[in-house]
Amino acid sequence: MLQTVIVGHGGPEKLRMREGADPVPGPGEARIRVRASGINFADILAREGLYPDAPRPPVVVGYEVSGTVDAVGSGVDAALVGTEVIGLTRFGGYADVVSVPVRQVFAKPSGLSHEDGAALPVAYLTAWQLLVVMGSLKAEETVLIHNAGGGVGLAAIDIARHVGATIYGTASSAKHPYLLERGVHEVIDYRATDWAKEVDRLTGGRGVALVTDPLGGTHWKKSYRALRSTGRLGMFGVSTATSSRLAGPLRLGRTAVGMPFFHPVPLMNANKAVFGVNLGHMWGEAEMTAGWMQTLLDGVEEGWVRPHVDRTFPLAEVAAAHTYIEERRNIGKVVLTS
Ligand SMILES: NC(=O)c1ccc[n+]([C@@H]2O[C@H](COP(=O)([O-])OP(=O)(O)OC[C@H]3O[C@@H](n4cnc5c(N)ncnc54)[C@H](OP(=O)(O)O)[C@@H]3O)[C@@H](O)[C@H]2O)c1
Fold it and tell me: DSSP character for 59?
């Protein structure tokens, strides 16, 4: 087995290859010969020591893989061996083989490549929870998707289109042409202009029904203000923490200090709702997320779920892959291949 290990907190140089014996699948597990592993922004935060959920180094991160089952543990149907699957991994995905509980393993649609398969689970499940499950987005509403050009952003666009809603997206200007092609109605360069003024202008001062915000800190206050009556704010990340020049945990501290407090009375009087999403804390709800996953896999067959892989890197070049994302060059997902 080959794995990429985070050996300590810091830059991409903290990622190293490690060789070891293949894992033996335990009871209820399937072992997957991995062809592709999805990279998520959380992996970068984990490498930098900014992701409290990640085990301390040395750690192999990675939440999602696509490949072929080559062995199963006790209690698992042997017919699974040889099938092409997508797996959700609770860390350990940056590897060419990994064992996963079968409840986190799904048949890969035959029309989907392994690269696209590895790009699907985290981005689409997160976006589904944000827009449909908790955001209750409706066709007549407008959603504002921040970081629209990232993996979760593109997934959210697909889902909002499926719902039939009007879509505003914020992203760096280089990503705008692709986002318009993908179905965003209005794109805003949030790094060069005040996006809130732009939303005001576009909505005649009314605001939008739903904002999905992975930036965190003071940004959440601004997103809350951009909601119209009955509007919902979905908070699901703290990307801004990585932009700070402060060292280690101080970066998170600064982001935390800028966060809003939502008092019930102003919430009530404003007719607004706020909610949080952390897919990494949904492992205890495997049945619920499996239902969402099935809807999304059906969406692949129906044509409205369209994972977009911007670039692939061989597993051994994971450091370059992280740098590529940190330089904001990706549109959609970056995937490791083995
Ligand atoms: N809570 C959850 O369950 C959950 C699940 C998945 C992801 N997330 C969070 O959602 C966010 C996006 O994740 P993703 O996997 O979609 O990311 P991604 O594909 O890597 O996209 C990241 C995009 O975010 C923008 N960005 C904003 N601040 C950035 C920064 N400081 N450094 C680099 N890029 C920055 C960039 O777009 P522009 O160039 O357009 O600014 C970049 O392309 C992250 O905060 C992640 O932690 C949360």
Answer: B
